[in-house]
Amino acid sequence: MKDIDQYYLQLEEPTKGIFLALREFILSLDANITNDFKYKMPFFCYNGKMFCYLWKDKTTQQPYIGIVEGNAINHPLLEQGNRARMKILRINPKEDLPIENITEIFNQLLILYK
User: Fold this and answer.
1) Where is the YdhG-like domain (predicted)?
2) Which of 42, 48, 62, 98 is surrounded by the most beta carbons within 10 Å?
3) Does the model's pTM come out above 0.85?
């Protein structure tokens, strides 16, 4: 079993379900997107370039999508915090995934990578 698959399987709910759903959704966006295990976290790459990743906030344990080139994307739900390059999209585990917002963000992001 690959490290990336083991990572997803060891997660607890609701994070496990959220990450697996996001994985399926992100991979469905473009055939050039791959899911890799880098820095002990699930990264998605577009033609080998780091694209985004899935992680949890250390304090709140709330899952989020980290957008590598987030500084080039404008969307009201993206948070920059004190990051120079990346932005994050927090995912509320008590609500449905914001697929429409995720799609808008990733459509902008894919334009940068193509």
Assistant:
1) 17-108
2) 42
3) yes
